[in-house]
Structure formats: structure tokens, C-alpha cells
Amino acid sequence: MSEPTSDIAIARRARKLPIADIAARLAIPAEAVIPYGRDKAKIDAEFLRALEGRPVGKLILVTAINPTPAGEGKTTTTVGLGDGLNAIGRRAAICLREPSLGPCFGQKGGAAGGGRAQVVPMEDINLHFTGDFHAITTAHNLLAAMIDNHMHWGNALGLDPRRIVWRRVVDMNDRALRDIVQSLGGPANGLPRESGFDITVASEIMAIVCLAADLEDLEARLGRIVVGYRPDKSRVYARDLKADGAMAVLLKDAMLPNLVQTLENNPAFVHGGPFANIAHGCNSVVATRAALRLADYVVTEAGFGADLGAEKFFDIKCRQAGLTPDATVIVATVRALKMNGGVAKADLGREDVAAVRRGAVNLQRHIGNCQSFGVPVIVAINHFGTDTDDEIDAVRLAAEAAGVEAVLCRHWAQGSAGILDLAHRVAALADGGTARFRPIYPDAMSLLGKIETVVKDIYHGAAVTAEPAVLRELESFERDGYGALPVCMAKTQYSFSTDPGRLGAPSDHVVHVRQVRLAAGAGYVVAICGDILTMPGLPRHPAAEAIRLNEEGLVEGLF
After folding, report:
1. Which are the contacts of 344, defined by CB distance < 8 A and separation ≥ 6?
2. DSSP H/E element including 469
3. Which of 229, 319, 379, 504 is 20 to 30 A (C-alpha) from 476?
4. If residue 453 lies in a helix (H) or strand (E), which one and from where to where?
């Protein structure tokens, strides 16, 4: 029988262990395991509470250069490194985000790793999994329904229908829902008004689930959600509608971290799934904290390139959760660097060392940015079969010029055996005690100052522009006591600028903030930059066209 080559075929051949056996590797007792079938489970809240006070392991962040159609493999490297650390005798756990259905049926595909560095069951993780996204969608839309119901029955809170900011969500790319007129058909259907939908991963409730410490914190954060404004600009909160309790009930099970396994039967927590281009892009605090108390090394990832995911991991997640990372891995590929160097996707198979050198400025920019947070950095070169020795050497030299080491990794093809060198080096880096983590801006800085700091220090832009209304909104947030919150930059993932076509390492560009949103429950202020959308659309030929059940009833074409 020929060796399987597609991710889904490889995953289907996996020899999975019962999920209780995977939990036992982290000393999680059977009574704390809540099975969802034979190969996935949630971990009981009482057991999680009992972990408080235990010593914590080393926290390792995996991030990447800016994504390109050539592929980078951040999640694949996260899984591979977790397997590699276990293979060299270190007790390691992996913490990933749950995939959204939008990319799975759109263009990007799934997010469970790839090749021989995957988490399984791959189909379940990429589809409905344990229902967390459905619970988040339902809780979000319950609040929307309660807002409209309140308006219908007299609007005792005095909400201005023109200033309701809580939209609905669905976990699918659907451009037709971006801007809608709702409640048509007469008085019985409510008050007509303009509104719209965001994708579920952009929901503030997704961020709240990922940042809340426990159920008590969850309900408090839900109550702080701003749903709209009165004519005098005073805010109306979810707690004013008495929606926070019911929303917490819907999210009770979604707050419990999900445990699965890698192809090599190592433990992986897959929990929460905010995008990093429109949200904060990290897995849940609950899962990360649990893993740190159950394993000696925890490998986690943050979405898209380091200018988005890593910055938000450091400035939002670590700040809120009191986490102190010990090492950072930046994933790069020869193919992606060639694309940053001006090579078309169709020509990436041909050797072009000069293009690698030109494109390596993107990698070097990310290295310097990550170093500015005080965490030691190493580069993982995710190997493709078309890479040549000279191209790989060019990446190594570029990393060395930026002051860090680059290690070639073959985990996609070989699993843990192909990433042992990186595992040894990352363990040494994390154990070295050289991390001096610090966010890049203090709490006390103004909100505009925080936005400008990210733009100038991370994006290397020249300036920030914004309409007067946006500046007034930021000032109002500060007057009302929200000035100490971090900022969550929503911008294209493809470039340091707001122009997705500007690859490499553009500098001196201007970043325009067209809108700001107060996410009081999540605990940050969102700055929407350039043309970024909070509801994606499907491409001309979405992945859904190739996804189907075969004659055996198995999923085909998922990834």
C-alpha cells in the first residue's frame, strides 16, 4: 500500500490512543476527563482549580513571518516541536487554537498541523469538534436577540437604535451579511435598523472565553460588554439587559479546555480560536495555565505573522494572564522568503538564492521585533522538498546577521525525528534563564500612544492617521476609565503595512485607523486599520467545492 501524502489521509492512518491514556501522560486522573467520544475530551473545572499553586513549566511561543500563499507552517511546527521535545525526554504539552469553519470552507484550509506533525482527530477538530464555536455563536446571538427584544418592548434603557454596536455572528465567510437591514416586515418584527454580521472568531465573546480565568471572571466580563449607547452617549452594557447570566450558562462547557493528541500520541490542548488579524489570535488562558502546571514545557502558537499574533500574545494575553514566556520560535520557509523577494508563486520551485536574500528582510524584521519583548529568539526553517542547500544557507546567514540561530526542520515529512535539533536548542534556550519579558508599552500610556507605539516599533511605520471622530472616541474611552487597556490592532496579515501587496519589510508607511471599538469585556480596545474586514468573503473557488463524503462515508478534500 502506498504511503499517504495528503494531511487528511495521514491523519486517518493515525494509531490513536484512548484519550484517558493521553490525559494520564499529564497525570490527569480519569475522573477529571470528560470524554467526547474515544479520542477527545474536556477537562473538569474542579480539577483545573486544584492546579492553582503548582509550579509552572517553560512557555514557548511559536510565531512566523508574514503569511504568503507559499506556506509557512506555524501550526505544523508547533505540533512538531511538541513531539520533538517529548522525543528527547522532556514532558511537553501543546496549546493550539480551534480552527474556524470559515477558512476550512474558504481558502486557507484547516488548522490542525500537517504531514506527520498533526493533532487528531483532524476532521473533528476542523469541523464541529466539541461544540465550543457553536456555544460562542449562540451566546453572542442571544445577546443580540435580547437587545432587539428590549427595543421592541419599550426600550426602558433608552438605547439609541442608531448607536447599537452589537452585531450578530456566524462562523462562516459570508460577504452578503457584512451590512444588512434587519427587522423588516412591520411592527411585530421589531424596529428596522442597519446592522450586520461578523465571523464568530471576531466576536468579543470568543476573546472573552480565551482571556477569562474562570467562570466567575467569564460572567463578569460578559456583563461588561458594551452593546450600544444612549442619545447622551452613555453606554449600555450586557448586564443592564440581564443577559450575562444566561450567556455564561451557554458558555459553561465551552470554557473547559479540549484535550486531544498528536500523531505521536502526545497531549495537545486545542481551545479557543480568535483570528489574529481582527482579534488577539491566541488560544485560551485556561488551557495555557493548565498546561503550564501539568507539563515542564508548553509550546503554543499565535496567529499569522509575529507583527500580529506575537505582538498580541505579548501585549494582551501575557499582560492579562500574568504569563512570562521563556523562548520564541519564528517559523520561516525558503518558499515564503522567495515570495517576499519578488518571486511569483508559479516560479517558487526554481532555485533563487538572491530572492531568498531579498525576502529575508521580512524574517529579520520579525526577529528584531520579537527580541524587543525581551524573550530569546530562534528561527525554525520549515523544509520543503524543493529547497536547495544554498537557499537554506541564505536563510541561516540572514538569521545569524540578526543575531539568532536558524535550524532546519523536517517534521512535516519525518515527524519528531525531523525536528530533534530544534527541540534540543529550544529546550536549552528556555532553560537558559535569559528571558526578561516586557510588553512594549506601559498601561499608563494613552490609547493613541499605544497604537503609535505598535505602528512605529513593530510595523516600522512613519505615522498614524485617524478621523477626528476616532480620536474623540479614544478620548471618551480614556475619560470613562478604559485608558489602561491594551490595544488590539486589526489589519491585514500579509504585510507590515496596511497594504497586503507590500511584502518584505516596508518602512515609513502611514497606518490609517478608520474605526475603534471598545471591547470592555475582553479588556482591550480594537483599532481597525486600512481595509481589514471582520467578515471575510469566499474566494472565486472556495475549498467547499472539493469537500464531500466518499462512498465509505468519510470526509474528503478537507485539507
Report:
1. none
2. helix 468-479
3. 319
4. helix 447-453
Q: Which of 105, 166, 304, 314 is catalytic?
A: 304
Active site residue 304: yes
Q: At what angle do helices 204-211 and 215-223 cross, to 10 degrees?
A: 150
Which CA distances in Å does 516 have to 59, 165, 204, 496? 32, 11, 14, 20
Residue 514: strand, helix, or coil: strand
Q: Minimal CA–CA distance to 207: which of 282, 135, 129, 146? A: 282
Which neighbouring-strand residues pair with 194?
181
Pairing state of beta strands 327-332 and 377-382?
parallel
Instruction: Please identify which of the residues 63, 68, 75, 76 carries the catalytic annotation.
Output: 76
**217 vs 220: CA distance, rounded Å:** 5
**pLDDT, tens digit, 9 for 90 and up, residues 182-224:** 999 999 999 899 999 999 999 999 999 999 999 999 999 999 9
384 is an active site residue: yes
Type of residue found at 126: N
**From 16, 42, 108, 235, the catalytic residue:** 108
Smallest CA-to-CA distance from 203 within 232, 238, 230 is with: 238
Query: Which residue type does 282 have?
Result: C
Tell me whether residue 97 is one of the annotated catalytic residues.
Answer: yes
Q: Look at residues 90, 94, 92 and name the one whose alpha carbon lies nearest to residue 76.
A: 94
The one catalytic residue in 16, 42, 58, 74 is 74
CB 183 within 8 A of CB 193: yes
The rounded Cα 553 to chain-centroid distance in angstroms is: 31
What's the confidence (pLDDT) of residue 107? 75
Does the annotation mark 197 as catalytic?
no
CB neighbour class for 51 (10 Å; exposed up to 12, middle 13-18, buried from 19): middle
For 288-336, what is each residue's pLDDT tens digit? 999 999 999 999 999 899 999 999 999 999 999 999 999 999 999 999 9
pLDDT at 44: 97
Verdict on whether the full-model pTM lies above 0.90: yes
Average pLDDT over residues 151-162: 96
Closest CA to 81 of 96, 66, 69, 70: 96
CB atoms within 10 A of CB 431: 14
**Local confidence band at 178 (pLDDT 50, 70, 90 cut-offs):** very high
Mean pLDDT of the chain: 95
Given 384, 477, 496, 559, the catalytic residue: 384
Distance, CA of 458 to CA of 452 (rounded, Å): 10
- Tell me which of 97, 168, 293, 319 is the catalytic residue: 97
